[in-house]
């Protein structure tokens, strides 16, 4: 006869206590996980709320900077001396200014210091050979292939007849990733990267000297604010020495000073045809910062004695 043995009572109790302990530990771990997840969620929500608060405050600080920039331009117009130059309050670059619990940084740039690419073709699709020559000189000064001037004219004009070094939509449509020429004014300088012959390196060198602003009439370049490369491109006889003389005489306050500097010959007349001493179109960048959260508001406006006109506004998303 086989003798049956049963588990001692104390062994069964110990096993049950062990199981209860494991279950308790599992429940405790679950609770800790839930608490930690809740804590993380609350912290994220608090951080998001804080970022939203700081972002909103930064946006309104940027708006304050924008209003300040517009006031500076209007004040300058009221106290105008017949010229706009880089020594005037609106043009002076400053650092961040503490305002409330944050700071504001303001930058104002006149667009007439740049070469207007959309002047290569005016309304109605009429090409401007003189402007194209100026653009070629600008390209040459920057050691960029001059044929890009032809390609840019074709990109902007409304016809399908390619310039000698240019390209129309049939060329762009034959590329691996086809697209069409704009056949109208360029809206953003980034668009230049789609033009035949333009490389990223060319764009890096060229873009700082260009604007997409549509000039009203021929007189666009401000001799008091344009950089040497843009000034030299104005005329084939504009030598680096003459450019240095122009810059040294800044601020130039009257057209007669131009003739004194450049002489009274054809060069002076041609420069006076395309260049002036004032600016009317400005881009204002205003940046507000609160607790390392920054918001930038950018506007472009046309300033006039009666009323400034907003051309476009870019606000943070």
Could you give the topology of this structure?
Elements: H1 9-78, E1 97-99, E2 102-110, E3 115-116, E4 121-122, E5 126-127, H2 129-141, H3 147-156, H4 169-172, H5 200-206, E6 210-211, E7 221-222, H6 228-232, H7 240-248, H8 255-262, H9 266-274, E8 275-276, E9 281-290, E10 293-302, E11 309-314
Parallel strand pairs: 3-6, 7-8
Antiparallel strand pairs: 1-2, 2-9, 4-5, 9-10, 10-11
Question: How is this structure best described in words?
Answer:
With 317 residues, this protein is of the alpha+beta class. The chain folds into two domains: 49-114 and 215-317, Pantoate--beta-alanine Ligase, Chain: A,domain 2, CATH 3.30.1300; 116-212, EpsJ-like (Ribonucleotide Reductase Protein R1, domain 1, Orthogonal Bundle). The chain is 43% helix and 16% strand. The chain has a five-stranded antiparallel sheet with strand order 1-2-9-10-11. A two-stranded parallel sheet has the order 3-6. The chain has a two-stranded antiparallel sheet with strand order 4-5. Helix 2 packs across helix 3 (147-156) and helix 8 packs antiparallel against helix 9.
């Amino acid at each position: 006869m086989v003798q049956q043995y049963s588990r001692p009572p104390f062994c069964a109790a110990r096993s049950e206590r062990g199981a209860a302990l494991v279950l308790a530990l599992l429940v405790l771990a679950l609770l800790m996980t839930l608490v930690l997840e809740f804590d993380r969620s609350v912290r994220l929500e608090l951080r998001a709320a804080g970022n939203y608060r700081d972002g909103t405050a930064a946006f309104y600080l940027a708006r304050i900077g924008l209003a300040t920039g517009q006031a500076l331009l209007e004040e300058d117009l009221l106290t105008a001396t017949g010229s706009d130059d880089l020594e005037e309050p609106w043009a002076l670059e400053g650092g961040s200014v503490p305002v409330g619990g944050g700071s504001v940084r303001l930058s104002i740039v006149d667009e007439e210091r740049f070469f207007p690419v959309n002047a290569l073709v005016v309304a109605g699709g009429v090409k401007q050979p003189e402007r194209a020559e100026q653009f070629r000189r600008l390209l040459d000064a920057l050691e960029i292939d001059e044929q890009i001037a032809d390609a840019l004219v074709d990109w902007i004009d409304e016809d399908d007849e390619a310039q000698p070094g240019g390209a129309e939509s049939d060329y762009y449509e034959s590329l691996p990733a086809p697209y069409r020429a704009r056949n109208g004014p360029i809206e953003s300088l980034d668009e230049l990267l789609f033009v035949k012959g333009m490389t990223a390196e060319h764009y890096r060198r060229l873009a700082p000297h260009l604007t997409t602003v549509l000039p009203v009439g021929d007189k666009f370049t401000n001799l008091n604010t344009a950089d040497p490369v843009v000034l030299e491109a104005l005329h084939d006889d504009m030598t680096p020495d003459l450019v240095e003389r122009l810059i040294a005489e800044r601020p130039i306050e009257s057209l007669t000073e131009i003739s004194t500097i450049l002489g009274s010959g054809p060069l002076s007349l041609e420069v006076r045809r395309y260049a002036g001493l004032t600016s009317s179109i400005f881009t204002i960048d205003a940046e507000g910062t609160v607790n390392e959260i920054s918001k930038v508001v950018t506007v472009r406006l046309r300033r006039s004695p009666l009323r400034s006109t907003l051309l476009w506004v870019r606000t943070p998303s």
